[in-house]
Specification:
With 669 residues, this protein is an alpha+beta fold. 20% of the residues lie in helices and 24% in strands. Among the domains are: 14-152, Immunoglobulin-like, CATH 2.60.40; 584-668, Immunoglobulin-like. The strands form 10 sheets. Strands 25-24-23-18-15-10-27-26 form an 8-stranded parallel sheet. Strands 2, 3, 6, 7, 8 and 9 form a 6-stranded antiparallel sheet that branches. The protein is globular. InterPro entries: GH, GH13_cat_dom, Glyco_hydro_13_lg-like_dom, Glyco_hydro_b, Ig-like_fold, Ig_E-set. This is Alpha-glucosidase. Pfam families: Alpha-amylase, Alpha-amylase_N. Residues 169-577 form the Glycosyl hydrolase family 13 catalytic domain.
């Protein structure tokens, strides 16, 4: 297993080790280190980027050649040790010296893991005479690690468009009112004791009546999104839209679905949804785009036809009759008033997924007419689902995160991919989501609270995503990022949704005390880090907002222009990301952490480009010496800061750049 620890004997290529020890390398080789019974940890590097992994997403018939970097002449031998799930055994592959890098500072060693269909996990054993070091995704250690290995999952691929895209999240009621004729008006209906309230665009989100915040409507709709696609696709350059729930529901947030098969009338119609999807997919208004819908499948609303607590439907729901065809959809402890809910919220009765082939499983994802398959197919053709409260889907009112939940997710993946193999499945989970992501059988990615939102908030704002004091130094920030990357296969890392804030957190700009420069810094990091950058509408200009519902303010369209510095920076950063594949699927290497001056530098690189990013999380300007030779950038090379246009020449392996407070430089070769 991945966390297993071997007690098996090993072998290595003694002949190669002897040649290295005697200096018998190809002509022209020079040594930056020596065989002195000491492995130089600083020279070691491997990740599953395209320069170090020949097949990051191999088929069952493709072998995987791995490359390990060391200081030149430093080691006597190296081995790959991998666990194969097919036989539950560890295996060894001796590595051989393959080449030097462009600088002559590093050696590149290679070894090949043979092709097969089974999942595998690997680490490196690196030897310099009597000294041994181990390297895996979690880092370098002197003793053999028991966790944090790299992954090989044959046959598993995450969507290419998700790896290469930038996502924009919209809370529909608050984005833009494109059709005032469908606006929910004051007192239009009453639900759960609350009459609807129509609020003017830009006004307060809190209800006039205490306890009725979910009855506040501003009028945003699908027509509004259609009208503003040019802003999203052209002004900003984002190409993936994620919409919070759009299906019929009595509340403004619509996480209490009344009818999965009907777009809420306040948002438009099913026909208008088809128009929106067509416009998103079109290349006539920018890059081809993609649409992800919010799937609220752990629970329904109590107004759903299947439940029908308030007798809104002509049919009998589970709350009305134990003879209802939908009675088995829910888990009643004592019918009708005692039933399983989402976090004790009575208006959100929990669905009972029962056993394989149950009616709920067929209704939500299993059949050709299921909710998930309906919107993936023509005439809609959405591109993916975000799974709300995904860990809780279960049978018999359980709380999920167990074998049944994983079984449901595996079935769901099979169903989704049978309709569209390139569809994306994004799970909502606030902690370590690797249980759903580490075997290629469930989700493609997850909302990256754990590996992005929380550490970024703590490093830049000094508070967690809830606004609680939690400042961390740069070195801890880097360690946190590495640890959370190590939890996941490389292609999963590339589709994790990296957002500064969401509809469930306070706004990033508010957490950072309204300092727009901290938003600038966060945007630079977001657009150059591993994963799919995800902009929660308004974060591109520093929208303010506290906890729910204040984090769902109406969009201020007066700021949606490149005359706004933050919007202009967002546009520029997305353009940079779109122009350089290294920022999307390239390797990630830490270059510098400076806790005293709050500096962080890292590299993103592939065969075409080597990019060093320098970030200054201090309030004053600092001069940063970036060791770009670690990216195999040679002395005399020119690097251009893609933000300022200033060019720098590499000297003694470094680039020296001045970076403003709460800002950065993106240095590209």
């Amino acid at each position: 297993m991945r966390n297993g620890k071997t007690t098996y004997p090993h072998y290595r290529t003694l002949a190669l080790g002897l040649c290295l020890a005697l200096g018998m390398l190809p002509l022209g080789a020079s040594f930056a280190a020596s065989n002195d019974n000491n492995v130089e940890w600083a020279g070691l590097f491997h990740d599953q980027g395209p320069l170090y992994d020949s097949n990051p997403e191999p088929s069952a018939t493709q072998a995987v050649t791995l490359t390990l970097r060391t200081y030149k002449g430093d080691i006597t031998s190296a081995n790959i040790k991998y666990y194969d799930s097919a036989d539950s055994q560890f295996h060894w592959v001796a590595m051989h010296w393959a080449a030097n890098d462009a600088t002559g500072i590093y050696d590149l060693w290679q070894g090949t893991i043979p092709a097969s269909a089974s999942e595998k996990y690997y680490r490196f054993q690196i030897n310099d005479g009597s000294s041994t070091a181990w390297l895996n995704a979690a880092g370098t250690t002197s003793s053999e690690p028991t966790a944090g290995d790299f992954f090989i999952i044959p046959g598993f691929k995450t969507p290419v468009w998700m790896k290469n895209g930038v996502m924009y999240q919209i809370f529909p009621d608050r984005f833009y009112d494109g059709d005032t004729s469908n606006d929910v008006t004051n007192g239009q209906y009453t639900y759960a004791g609350c009459a609807t309230e129509q609020h003017a665009w830009g006004s307060a989100v809190a209800a006039n009546v205490s306890g009725c915040n979910t009855a506040v409507f501003f009028g945003g709709d699908l027509q509004g999104i259609i009208d503003k696609l040019g802003y999203i696709k052209n002004t900003l350059g984002a190409d993936i839209l994620y919409l919070n729930p759009i299906f019929e529901s009595p509340t403004d947030h619509k996480y209490d679905t009344e009818d999965y098969y009907t777009v809420d009338p306040a948002f438009g119609s099913n026909a208008l949804l088809q128009t929106l999807i067509g416009d998103i997919h079109s290349t006539g208004n920018g890059r081809k785009g993609y649409l992800i819908l919010d799937g609220v499948f752990n629970h329904t609303g109590d107004t759903n036809q299947w439940f029908d607590k308030y007798h809104w439907w002509s049919t009998n729901g589970a709350y009305e009759s134990q003879s209802s065809p939908w009675y088995g959809y829910y888990d009643f402890q004592q019918w009708p008033n005692s039933y399983s809910t989402f976090f004790g919220i009575g208006s959100m009765p929990k669905l009972d997924y029962g056993a394989t082939g149950s009616a709920v499983r067929e209704q939500i994802y299993g059949s050709s007419t299921s909710v998930m398959q309906t919107y993936l197919k023509s005439p809609y053709g959405i591109d993916g689902w975000r799974l709300d409260a995904a860990q809780y889907l279960d049978a018999g009112g359980g709380n999920g995160s167990d074998a049944t939940n994983h079984q449901i997710m595996q079935e769901m993946r099979t169903a989704v991919k049978s309709v569209n193999a390139n569809a994306d499945i994004v799970g909502e989970f606030w902690g370590d989501a690797s249980s759903w992501l580490d075997d290629g059988k469930e989700w493609d990615g997850a909302m990256n609270y754990n590996g992005f939102t929380q550490p970024v908030s703590e490093w830049i704002c000094g508070v967690d995503e809830g606004g609680n004091s939690a400042a961390i130094p740069t070195s801890q920030f880097d360690s946190w990022l590495r640890g959370t990357r190590a939890d996941l296969p490389g292609d999963v890392q590339q589709v994790m949704t990296n957002f500064l804030g969401s509809h469930d957190t306070s706004r990033f700009a508010t957490r950072c005390g309204g300092d727009i420069w901290k938003t600038y810094l966060a945007l630079i990091f977001q657009m150059t880090y591993v994963g799919t950058p995800t902009i929660y509408y308004g974060d591109e200009y520093g929208m303010q907002g506290g906890a729910d519902p204040d984090n769902r303010r109406s969009f201020d369209w007066s700021q949606a222009t490149t005359t706004d510095a933050a919007v202009a920076l967002t546009q520029k950063l997305i353009g940079i990301r779109n122009a350089y594949p290294a920022l999307r699927t390239g390797s990630f290497m830490t270059l510098l952490t400076d806790d005293t001056n709050h500096l962080y530098a890292y590299g993103r690189f592939d065969a075409s480009n080597r990019i060093a990013v320098a970030l200054n999380n201090d309030s004053v300007t600092h001069t940063v010496t970036v060791p770009v030779s670690q990216l195999s950038v040679t002395n005399g090379s020119t690097l251009t800061d893609l933000l300022s246009g200033i060019q720098y020449t590499v000297s003694n392996g470094n680039v020296v750049v001045s970076v403003q407070g709460h800002y950065g430089a993106i240095l590209a070769q």
